[in-house]
Amino acid sequence: MARHIGILTSGGDCPGLNAAIRAVARAACDHQIKVTGFRDGFRGLVHDQTMELQPGMLSGILTDGGTILGTSRDKPHRMPIGGKERDMTHAIVETVHRHKLDAVVCIGGGGTQKNALRLQQAGINVLTLPKTIDNDIHGTDMSFGFDTALEIATQAMDRLHSTASSHRRIMVVEIMGHRAGWLALGAGMAAGADVILIPEIAYDLGHVAEAISERAQAGKRFSIVAVAEGAMSREDAKEVSRLVKLKNSDKKAERRQASEELIAFHAQHTDHTLRLTQELEQLTGQESRLTILGHLQRGGTPTAADRLLCTRLGTACVDALLQRRFGTMMAVRGMDIIPVPIDEVAGRKKLVPSDHEWVQSAKAVGTCFGD
Ligand code: F6P
Q1: What percent of the chain stands above pLDDT 90?
Q2: Complete domains list, the chain, with CATH
Q3: Considering 40, 102, 134, 194, which one is annotated as catalytic?
Q4: Residues with CB under 6 A from ligand 1
Q5: Ligand 1 midpoint to CA 142 (Å)
Q6: Distance (Å, rounded) from C-alpha 371 to C-alpha 354?
Q7: What does each C-alpha distance from 304 to 24, 48, 63 come to in angstroms?
Q8: 134 catalytic residue (yes or no)
Q9: Could you give phi then psi for residue 363, rounded to 5 degrees?
Q10: What is the pLDDT of residues 311-352, one digit of tens each?
Q11: Any idea of the CA torsion for 18, 19, 24, 25, to the nearest 10 degrees?
């Protein structure tokens, strides 16, 4: 029988983290299991920085954005210590033994699943919950945070419609999602965007400009273009796939060169949406404006759907703890929550298949993907 567990939140924050912490801690408390929070992700485990999660602290946090535990992107095996990155897995193992933790619950995205797997391989019992607005975690239909970000991005585009129409403008909206297009695709569809550009479908700039010009010729006063932050033109996609191939070369020099060029590519890709906005203005002759939604998509109170999901994931996690189903992530499969082995999840990304039903549905209502 478990007596004491640790819990942490890691990676980029998102709405619903507090709801998930509350669910795990309340359900654990119901079984007389003590819950110790570790601050700022895996860093808290390394430095033994804790927060006792007394029942009183959990009241009122269901609706709060952010995380009461704090978060960081620190990795156990590459922890920044004294200006250097060090493998601190041993320190984490010591912390777990010092507190006599039966398990550690790690709440986070794809990176967190990988880090949790490392801890499991170091002999620590881990359980994870899938969190990210990007919805790109393998093995789960949905991650929490996605629904809230979807709502925020959709509402933002709804608001852009009226001002776009007043001024006869193209409104380009950059939407988060890292290398996956779920958020831009979902919000673009919900807001009726005229063009949706996602990383999984490389676009031809000429085709996008053509679709916008056709709208203007048909008397439409504006166009809304939803762009995922990782969206790429056909030329850029070709270059990236060349570099990725080279990165797997058996020649060390080629691998190093490809890695450096890929880092440089992604660094200069940050102003991709601005360049796209300017190019569309030139090609169509229509005034264009760019809105970058950025971290607005990760702030504030979670939607009802995310609160519900976090509560279900958190209580399922305590069920898995009681059944000693360690090394698992609580995953959404259809209407159910089931524990799936973390080693089947870690290191894999759930991208949008280019023939996904959402893409087909968007195309059926006339949305241009630039392909
Ligand atoms: O993974 C969530 C996410 O918001 C991505 O959509 C985005 O690319 C990234 O995090 C931004 O990270 P940061 O908050 O560290 O700038």
Answers
A1: 97
A2: 4-144+302-344 (3.40.50.450), 149-298 (3.40.50.460)
A3: 134
A4: 12, 109, 132-134, 176-178, 229, 298
A5: 17
A6: 10
A7: 18, 34, 9
A8: yes
A9: -65, -35
A10: 999 999 999 999 999 999 999 999 999 999 999 999 999 999
A11: 60
